Please model this.
Amino acid sequence: METPANDLRTATDLLRRKGLRSTVQRRAVLDALRSGSHATAAEVEARIEDAEPAGGLSRQGLYNVLDDLTHAGLVRCIEPAGSPARYELRVGDNHHHLVCRGCGRIEDVDCTVGAAPCMDPLDAKGFSLDEAEITWWGLCEVCRKAEAAG
Ligand SMILES: [Zn+2]
Ligand SMILES: [Zn+2]
Ligand SMILES: [Zn+2]
Model:
């Protein structure tokens, strides 16, 4: 997997590039997302608390920051059915996801086409389309083995 461009820049650089003020809270959220992709808000919160026990970011404050970063295009939010929203730093590359029905594991997969939308409907019904969100569902290797073992 390619290194996402976001990993090469500091949180402050990322925020400045998007014209966002570099606040402690925004930097803390970006840094928390660096330590693992597809994190839920609860996981982000736990990572921030680990890094900075006195960090003091309320759940609502955290959601506001995640919202700001998502709207600015610094963070991508995916919402697989049956799962809380998950956040990642890998943006702008139209990658897709594999989701395990057994354990909920999520893996990134590169788009074979690259540009979005990578799949056209038979009839666009007059819509101007900019994205086809593709999620493949199945069982990961660990779950498949567990199932085979009974
Ligand atoms: Zn699994
Ligand atoms: Zn992803
Ligand atoms: Zn694709």
